[in-house]
Amino acid sequence: MESAACLVVPDAQRIRLDVTGAVQGVGFRPFVYRLAVDEGLAGYVRNTPAGVTLEVEGPDSAIEQFLVRLRREVRPPALIEGLARARLEPTGERGFAIASSSADTAPSVHILPDLALCEDCRAEVFDPADRRYRYPFTTCMHCGPRYSIIAAAPYDRARTAMRHFVMCPACQAEYDDPACRRFHAEANACPECGPQLALHAPDGALLAEADDALERVVGALREGRIVALKGLGGFQLLVDARNEEAVARLRERKHRLAKPFAVMAGSVADAEVIAHLSPVERAALESAAAPIVLVRARKDAARPIAPNVAPGNPNIGLMLPTTPLHCLLMDALGFPVVATSGNRSGEPIAADDDGAFANLADIADLFLTHDRPILHPVDDSVLRMIAGQPTVLRCARGVAPLVLPEAKQAQPLLALGGHMKSAVAVGRDGQIVLGPHIGDLAHREAREAFGRSVATMRSLYAVESVAVACDAHPDYHSTHVADGLGFPVSRVPHHLAHVLAVMTEHALSGPVLGVAWDGTGYGADATLWGGEFLTVHGARHHRIAHLLPFRLPGGEAAIREPRRTAIGVLHALHDGALWESEHAPVSAFSVQERTTLRAMLERRLNSPLTSSAGRLFDAVASILNLCQRASFDGETAMAVEFAAQEAKAVHALPSPGIVRAGDTVAIDWRPMISALADATHAGVAVEELAAGLHHWLVEAIVRVARQTGIAQVALSGGCFQNALLTELAMARLQEAGFRVYRAVRVPANDGGLAVGQAAYAARLQDEVTG
């Protein structure tokens, strides 16, 4: 573009600034342009794969004022993280220009996540006088797709999925105007030149286009039909959230028995009709990330959602419209809809039309699609308020790629995460970048998506010849992939990775007492760990305590059947007398099944040992008869937490005992479980016993922390998605004088493992090289 004229002054100085951070696709260059022109400076600004480079020339005083304003006036989502300054010889250049991008350096580690529709664009979409009235793909520099459409860095239209759409003269003029909020907005388009809607039958037959397609979908949803809608990062399955029969049909077709569905409301006002919203929850819903936020459902809602949307759950996963298409749809409907991932249960989200027709044809009645390609599928992010902070449970659209500083991260690195809630991370140049949620790697489709995510992250961040980090479990798919890449591999202990993820997020070097509690993870002794206390300093760690191990009759079957886990726990207490008792887990099995289980435990056949806190929650859920069979991961722990939240009092349980276990100590749960089972038979309220368990677990944490005397405590692992457990532990530890850290931006569950793996490999390399 042409340079803007600037004053020519004697004794001019010239400097170069290399800026890193979130500075592409966020209006940063026009912001720099306006500042430079305002201060009368000459020079240029351009995108580079590493960020943004600019040179300014003029009087010292003007340059210094420019630098002050550059830091002070930059606005989100733009973010300056690094600014390298070099003095140059003045050239006598006149005017300031936005120059073409260069692609001669390694890509930056800041690729912006997709952003929800901004208020300016929303106003245009609903303005009958605007040329983008009712256009479902309206976007600008402040909103719209980013990660999902980028093919390569730097982020320019020619390197995105929008390269297929040639801008009309009006859009091109906006794109070229530094004063316009659509200056170099790479997804800029309008009804004349941009993507278009299409409505298809399950067999792919075209039924309608443009606004007619949207109107027919509105009618279909009112009739209780299921619609697959192509959103920012993939397909969503929509159905009327008030219609119990329609929701049941979706559950049946998706083979999703009880796991809660997310719900989309048209506005915050609509959301408050069906849920209680705190100011922090409201802000999270309305943020540019627009995640699903777990909030408390209203029991007294005048227009309640169907009970089978989130059966037995006091919370509801709520979200607001993220795109112009969603806004138009929800405005026309006037009622909330289920908005769940467009996939079969356990598989990755569908993102292209052919894949959606192939995989969702027996689920959806209609398909509302468009012709803007999704290059990188990305599911909806999920947040929950814990200790007053929005806490990420699933890192995806609007949040990922997530960039975290890591001072020890020097060499290019690829971290492959675990097996459940898989996500990939890369490391380079003092940062770790966590990619979006993929899913569980038990299915072929998920493994293929995992392979694509690995390729995407390596390509976008130019991580080619790399070191690799993975989980220590020898049989994980991610471990096999690591071994097949042909690079040096660091096998990172599962629970150490959990702790290091928290330490990375909070820039802790140690020493730290890490409390890593989850469902399962491969232990150094080849047993299943999950109730761990680790001391961590740098890359060095030591297991100092854990929950007393117990057996899981049936191995993995016990994860799906809490009653099996409870049998393993109770057998450790009662041995042969267990089988004549009236405990709920025993009654949940037939006589023949009990005989088989007894033989397994007595002969120790297919009954691995575990120290898992998550499995202890399962056992308690079964003993309290809250859940005997689980249909989804975390169902039993949620049942215990929800029961505890309803308690009017806390039933006191025996204090945690400490017993020697080799070179560590074990937290003895046996007196607690015995008392809890007896209290159940005595008729003590289930809610009070569930609350008692939470307090017992917190007492165990505080007791170990006091014994170690380490001032910093990191809470990590999937158990700390439990708000009650986390808040109680934080409060008690802080009262005892400890500084407490936990996962907030990085998922506490296995979705954050890759961050900890990358941190471990980086710290290990730093110790080796000095």
Describe this structure in words.
There is one protein chain. Among the domains are: 13-98, Alpha-Beta Plaits (2-Layer Sandwich); 197-370, DHBP synthase, CATH 3.90.870.40; 547-686, Tetracycline Repressor, domain 2 (Orthogonal Bundle). 33% of the residues lie in helices and 22% in strands. It is built from 23 helices and 32 strands. The longest helix is centred in the C-terminal third of the chain and has 23 residues, at 686-708.
Main traits of this protein?
single chain; 770 residues; alpha/beta; DHBP synthase; Tetracycline Repressor, domain 2; 12-stranded mixed sheet; 7-stranded mixed sheet; 23 helices
Query: What sort of overall outline do the alpha carbons produce when their principal axes are compared?
Result: globular
The main sheet comes to: 12 strands, mixed
The amount of beta strand, in percent, is 15-25%
Under the CATH scheme, the architecture of the domain at 197-370 is: Alpha-Beta Complex
Tally of alpha and pi helices: 23
What structural class do you assign from the helix and strand content?
Answer: alpha/beta
Our measurement of the CA-to-CA distance between the termini, rounded to an integer number of angstroms, reads 48 Å
CATH first level of the domain at 197-370: Alpha Beta
Mean pLDDT: 93
